[in-house]
Amino acid sequence: QVQLVESGGGLVQAGGSLRLSCAASGRTFSSYTMGWFRQAPGKEREFVAGISYGGGTTYYSDSVKGRFTISRDNAKNTVYLQMNSLKPEDTAVYYCATRRFRDSLNLLNPADAGSWGQGTQVTVSS
Questions:
Q1: Is 31 helix (H, G, I), strand (E, B) or coil?
Q2: Mind listing the pLDDT tens digit for each residue in 8-20?
Q3: 59 - beta bridge partners?
Q4: Which residue, among 95, 120, 114, has the nearest Cα to 33 in the 3D structure?
Q5: CB neighbour list of residue 125: distance below 8 Å, 6 or more residues apart
């Protein structure tokens, strides 16, 4: 099991930027597809971005495409989410997750996640 700890959230004005980090424990981090999800109050957890275990493939939800960038550093056991041009509707708790299995499939559905971090709050003021 991989343990995940997110950091980097905070309060930012609309149009600003934040970079989230997700530090993982365990020697198998580089074997897992990783993803970022978010959950706003009263809403279901939704997919934001995903990255293959080698980092060569990335994919995004339509709502963040062109504004957010996911990346990973397997030597540091860390995955990142660079968020630019933030909007009030990006306000949510952001979670990183591993895919449940060490395979090459995408991580798009929360039900396919294996490990979750505790989440980090991102608040974008208008």
A1: helix
A2: 999 999 999 999 9
A3: 50
A4: 114
A5: 11, 12, 13, 14, 88
Distance of CA 104 to the CA centre of its chain: 17
- Tens of pLDDT, residues 74-125: 999 999 999 999 999 999 999 999 998 888 889 999 999 999 999 999 999 9
H or E stretch covering 39: strand 34-39
Give the tokens for residue 67: 């504004």
- Cα→Cα distances 16→2, 6, 7, 21, 61, Å: 31, 20, 17, 17, 19
| Contact residues for 18 (Cβ-Cβ < 8 A; gap 6+) | 8, 9, 10, 12, 83, 86, 122
Q: Name the residue among 26, 30, 1 with its Cα closest to residue 104.
A: 30
Which three-class secondary structure state does DSSP give residue 125?
Answer: strand
